[in-house]
Specification:
CATH superfamily: Phosphoenolpyruvate-binding domains
Helix content: 40-55%
CATH class: Alpha Beta
Distance between the termini: 37 Å
Shape: globular
Number of domains: 1
Structural class: alpha/beta
Radius of gyration: 20 Å
Largest sheet: 8 strands, parallel, barrel
Strand content: 5-15%
Length: about 300
């Protein structure tokens, strides 16, 4: 397994490559492993997916820092690709964010982002959001940057101000957060292609990489990665695609099973026993068993 620092350097090199990173949202270690097997270069652990996965509840600020750290630890230990992580609001003020940053970093995150919503926060594509002042969040970003134990850890800012004050405010806030040390800036809930283009133009010269967030059925139009790259984006999140796909597949499976009492009608959509064991690493554990086997006298 690669060390956390090696993964962080890999993430930084991917950003420098000029090729946009396509980053799916995941909520658990199994989904992260499947993404890695499919050739994905980086994943993002988002609060939306984690809240659905471990609580069965919406992303409305119910998760604690410790619950997110526990989930992140499992994800980072499961894969050799970099994992970005949703640090929400940092769970408090600038002092809280110091502890949150270090806990997420020690869990193995390559990049951690912190948003400027007022608590309780909610998914960036939900209505009714409120944001704190730009100055307060800039100080929180400074605190996160200063708190890093490994300087390869990337701090990213997120603003939700577009829904409250408009796209121009989101640009100005993001530039301010970049000045505070955010190496990547993310404005969520952007409402049109034109606004995506405007955000990219507005961030030119800031020195920060920028992120677009695609959510099926959300507020932002779905735009292919190549087109976003041409606009100037370095990362595109497909934040909820995995959890939506998993939910649909399981709903179809369970309704068919209840109706017919068998999985014969859905078996062709499953990974079979041996292939699944390979994905989760059974082969490795069999090798370790042979390596450390002790012959016992009867």
């Amino acid at each position: 397994m690669k060390t956390a620092t090696e993964k962080r350097i890999e993430f930084r090199n991917a950003l420098k490559s000029g090729k946009i990173l396509v980053v799916p949202g995941i909520g658990d270690a199994l989904t992260a492993k499947i993404a890695e097997k499919a050739g994905i270069r980086c994943v993002i652990m988002g609060g939306y997916s984690v809240s659905a996965s471990i609580l069965g509840q919406p992303d409305v600020g119910l998760l604690t820092c410790s619950e997110m750290v526990n989930q992140l630890t499992g994800i980072c230990n499961a894969v050799d690709i970099p994992a970005m992580a949703d640090g929400d609001t940092g769970y408090g003020n600038a002092l809280n964010i110091i502890r949150t940053e270090r806990m997420f970093e020690q869990a193995g995150a390559a990049c951690i982002f912190f948003e400027d919503q007022a608590w309780p926060k909610r998914c960036g594509h939900m209505d009714g959001k409120q944001v704190i002042s730009a100055e307060e969040h800039a100080q929180k970003i400074r605190a996160a940057v200063d708190a890093r134990l490994d300087k390869e850890t990337v701090i990213m800012s997120r603003t939700d101000s577009r829904a409250v004050y408009g796209i121009d405010d989101a640009i100005e806030r993001s530039k301010r957060y970049a000045d505070a040390g955010a190496e990547i800036c993310f404005a969520d809930g952007i409402g049109s292609r034109e606004e995506l283009e405007k955000f990219a133009r507005g961030m030119e010269g800031s020195g920060a990489y920028i992120v677009a967030n695609m959510i099926e059925g959300g507020k932002t139009p779905l735009i292919p990665a190549k087109e976003l790259e041409e606009m100037g984006y370095s990362i595109v999140f497909w934040a909820c695609s995995a959890v939506y796909t998993i939910s649909k597949a399981l709903y179809d499976l369970f309704t068919d099973l209840e109706k017919n009492g068998t999985t014969e009608g859905t078996a062709d959509r499953m990974i079979e026993f041996g292939q699944f064991n390979h994905i989760i690493g059974l082969d490795t554990y069999k090798q370790l068993e042979r390596k450390y086997k002790v012959d016992r006298d009867d």
